[in-house]
Amino acid sequence: MDTSGYARWFRDSTPYISRHRGRTFVVLLDGAAFNSPNLVNIVHDLALMHVLGARLVLIHGSRPQLDAALPDSLFHHGRRVTRAADLPKVLGVFGEQRVTLKALFSGGLPSSPLRRSDIAVMSGNFITAQPVGIIDGTDHELTGKTRRVHIRRINAVLDAGALALMSPLGYSPSGQVFNMASDELATDVAVALGADKLVIFNHADALRDAAGQRLSVLSPADLDAFLGDPDDMDKNHLRCAVRACRGGIQDVHLVGYAKDGALLAELFTAEGSGTQITESNHELIRPATLDDVASIVDMIRPLEERGILVRRSRDRLEAEISHFLVADIDSNVVGCCAIYPYEDTAELACVAVHPSYRDYDYPAIGPALLEAGERHARAAGAKTLFALTTQTHDWFVEHGFKDRGIDALPAPKQALYNYQRNAHVLTKSLDSTHDR
Ligand SMILES: CC(C)(COP(=O)(O)OP(=O)(O)OC[C@H]1O[C@@H](n2cnc3c(N)ncnc32)[C@H](O)[C@@H]1OP(=O)(O)O)[C@@H](O)C(=O)NCCC(=O)NCCS
What we know:
Carbamate kinase; 8-stranded mixed beta sheet; elongated; binds coenzyme A
């Protein structure tokens, strides 16, 4: 990359750096990542995130290592049964993995990106576990599941500026040690901590559609089509992703452990590199139907009367309803916008949020409408989005639009431009995809 390309890339990452600072990330590192030459790069990228102020909880998996150490393991519905006699080997494997990670985080040779970073990595008794028990007559013995996540202990480690490292282990009040499924543990920890993101370093670098195209954003409901057989443990990461979203984690990111820089590309660029699973805007914004016309009219009439929006008759609104998207909270229409495609551009019009939902924190309705509008415009083949506004110029600029002249409008729109209204013409490139 030349100097200006590098500078631009670094500048473009500024909003992501600000967004991730002080946020809690639970990171699941698939056991197979330990056999990848990319492991050292993953550690360097996690170190960079730590240095940039992210609060990291790292949980490793161990499936291939345990398969090798315990070749005669019994599985029930894909879950390993841990016999008492297996435990020393299990603990040996986990100990070796923790030491490997701690050694990698400690390497500070002058040639390493970790020089001068001085990252403290701390482990602890963060999990109280209970036995999975007897299922369909199979006693899972020392295979455990989460009974309690000690949030305060983990937060104490993070508050001290350290990275929390966990093996998939839990302890019972009687002092018994249990072997746990790392992806289920990572989900439990993320949900209990109220983490901002769960990141899963996965075998596949992303989910793909039938044509092999990467799916960069999906809702948990979209994942249903990928879950397959409940005993297929390869899909357990996806089941955990759904459970995490349903448990209140805003974003789950699947990234490939074998791909150099996958985490940084996923979290610090608009395009991403893996698949982001997020409930937020997919279920908030939906296409409008004729049943929404009355609510849209109620919302936009006062804005039309103040000259903020161009007046639309009810008939025109009904005729154009297929262009509209609405924000729907508990079956109430709380916002709308319309997308009108013109060859390689599209107009974003009639953006309105109900006054009680403006400046709303989570979810922010205006930005969600804008993001959904961009997605629809892109799907219609648009490379840019344009908007005409008289009183909302700064909001659009703050959301990536730039001032342009009337000649930036497509010809049919130029012909209709109302010089008396004298609206600002703003455009936004649709190169970038969405917030990460
Ligand atoms: C503009 C609008 C869609 C934003 O929706 P939202 O869900 O509140 O979106 P956000 O949360 O991103 O916006 C809140 C921020 O935008 C600012 N904002 C609201 N209206 C603005 C305007 N007309 N000009 C500049 N900034 C504005 C708010 O002050 C707030 O700023 P803050 O974050 O510093 O407190 C909403 O305010 C609205 O419906 N306004 C009336 C209709 C309108 O102007 N539509 C555009 C027609 S072209």
